[in-house]
Amino acid sequence: MSPQPQAAVGAPLSRVDGRLKVTGEALYSAEHDVDGAVHAVIVDSGIGRGRITSIDARAALAHPGVLRVISHRNTPELPYRDNSGSNNPPGRRLRVFQDDRVLFHGQPVAVVVATTLEAAQHGASLVKIRYDDEQPSTDLTKAEPGESTTYARGDADAAVRDAAVSLDLTYRTARNHHNPMEPHATIARWDGGRLTVWDKTQWVVGTQTELAAVFGLEMGAVRVISPFVGGGFGTGLRCWPHVVVAALAARETQRPVKLVLSRKQMYLGTGFRPSYEYRLRLGSDRRGRLTAAVHEMDAETSSYEQFTEGVLAAGQMLYSMPHVRQAYRTVPLDVNTPIWMRGPGFQTASFVIESAMDELAHELGVDPIELRIRNEPSEDEAKGVPFSTRRLRECFTVGAREFGWHRRNPRPRSRRDGDWLIGMGMATGVYDTVRAPAQARARLEADGTAVVEAASSDMGPGTYTSQAQVAADALGLTMRTVTFRLGDSRYPATPPHGGSMTMASVGSAVLDACDRLRRQAVILAIEDEESPLFGVAADDVVVRGGRLHVQGDPARGETYQRLLTRNNRSHLEAEGSFAPPSGPERHSFYAYNATFAEVAVDATLGLVRVRRILGVYDAGRIISPKLADSQALGGMVGGIGTALLEHTVTDHRDGRIVNANLADYLVPVNADIPDLKAIYLDGEDREADPLGVKGLGEVVMIGVAPAIANAVFNATGRRIRELPITAEALL
Ligand code: MOS
């Protein structure tokens, strides 16, 4: 087929759903008006580990409006079929109200259903539960490690020992919670044996699969609807217990049930970025050529599931070296199960590796960018295949120039501005280009408009807009005549909306569906004696503004509308799909960045203020530059949070999270956000996927924390190897 002119892709368009969002017309999960819905409020366990010995629901049931109190005492056995189709990690998932065990502080142990929210809330406070409690184990540094994942090439321990220069550094990173603006919420309704849920989720298909497994239903008997998601960062990647609670409560009361987690409950049952203790030993020669690295890390998981994330890849492929050994141990604790959070795994690994590279550069007296260039690999040394695209050198060059890196004095504490010590730092970021099978459907109406559908989600990156851009160009329509629909399990199946895979995966399926649809229209025209395109070769026809014409001869053609009407066709429809090639990969796929930060540190108070951040991205083709900027700047804000503020604190005496709210869990506010700038290297990655994208949502956050930590060192001469970097640590 002749390549379609690209008008929408690459244009800095505003969100097509922006108006709906700012006028409140976009409906989030709890806002759907479901007739006859009653309210459910979860009762959380008051202990960190043990057994429930009694539940006294009399006072709650006596409260006006309370309909039911449901707990393990009155819940029938639920099927809980095994399910590998919805991001459940290995282990035995938490089974809602199936026994008397308490596995972590704040576990759902009962639910109160009432006719009003207030009655349900008050009812929940009246449920009296007694426990037989045991001492929970929640301290990563004091617990026994469980499973481990390892990797080795060469003999890294010997090589580090024999290296001309070696470093032995231990880093700690805090537990982080996603804290999206919109809390998790579910409305569940049963119609006979069929279940419909309106749910905050990043994966309608995953939630559908899990609810079918839990309740023993056919997939087709469960429908999940989620047209708008008010932020996610990964918390919506699993179907958490509260979704099952809502569906169970609806089944037991025979009423539609609405359940909204409180801000506190957002910390109790919906996952988090696990904390790590990460020891890195590096060996290099005197010129800064790395010879070896030994990575040993412990990370939190729950006692009942073994959660792991991609924390190993960066250490295997980011820099060239013959010897690498890695051991990644998960430590089972009496906590709920972690989940991926923006830039999962790579974010943590990058903080450690990039901080250590800065230490090595300082030790050797080599510029940090120069050190990285000296260790650029010519291929992926773990997989033994070339990189599809890897343009880190350009990221460094462009970034150094735009940021004014030459103004950095490598000697710490050499720049001052009044009370403030000024420093500059940089780091590299890398994230996997994830692609997964996806499907889409496109339909062209006789009036010349089109509707494209895929299950997907849009947690904020602007999926409605970017997919419509792809569809508009492939169909030769304007943005106004294309509608993209998502967030419904009835639409063609898509992978999780996370891991930066949506544009590559869903976008490629949308492209395929629209290409097939356009082709149908073209064939209809060239085989129609009444069409001005009759007899033209299909490859010579392009479509622009809803009009098919001969390439190079715009006068010869007709509109979709005319073509379909004359042929008595109400519509044309096509299905499309995408799947990454199977078998061993012939290339190694990653997105990269160089991130630069300038900070000011109060010399007496230890306060850190970020002054500037610049990110330069090698992320393949940029479909939607304005949305890309929203992703990049948002990622930098997330990075500032991780670097300086975010820290979920557990009281190890009873396993309680002490700052389970948005006042004590610190996140950046406007005053914390300085001048942020994003630059994208032009180009595309044709090996990765038909759209040429490498994924952007994760890589923009990775590199920010180490760039800030390295800038803090340049400002103060102090190495802080623990996130977040606090004023206390700098005093
Ligand atoms: Mo994210 S961890 O890509 O939702």
Structure description:
- With 731 residues, the protein is of the alpha+beta class.
- The protein is built from 16 helices and 30 strands.
- Helix 11 packs parallel to helix 12 and helix 14 packs across helix 15.
- The site of dioxothiomolybdenum(VI) ion (MOS) has 13 residues, from loops.
- This is Xanthine dehydrogenase family protein molybdopterin-binding subunit.
- Pfam families: Ald_Xan_dh_C, MoCoBD_1, MoCoBD_2.
- InterPro entries: Ald_Oxase/Xan_DH_a/b, Ald_Oxase/Xan_DH_a/b_sf, Ald_Oxase/xanthine_DH-like, AldOxase/xan_DH_MoCoBD1, AldOxase/xan_DH_MoCoBD2, AldOxase/xan_DH_Mopterin-bd_sf.
- Keywords: Molybdenum, Oxidoreductase.
Summarize the model shown.
With 731 residues, this protein is of the alpha+beta class. Helix content is 24%, strand content 27%.
CATH class of the largest domain: Alpha Beta
Mind telling me which CATH architecture of the largest domain this is? 2-Layer Sandwich
> What is the terminal separation in angstroms?
65 Å
Q: Indicate the low-confidence ranges by residue numbers.
A: none
CATH topology of the largest domain: Aldehyde Oxidoreductase, domain 4
The main sheet comes to: 7 strands, mixed
Rg, Cα atoms, Å: 27 Å
Number of strands: 30
Strand share of the residues? 25-35%
Structural class: alpha+beta
- Please tell me what the overall shape is: globular
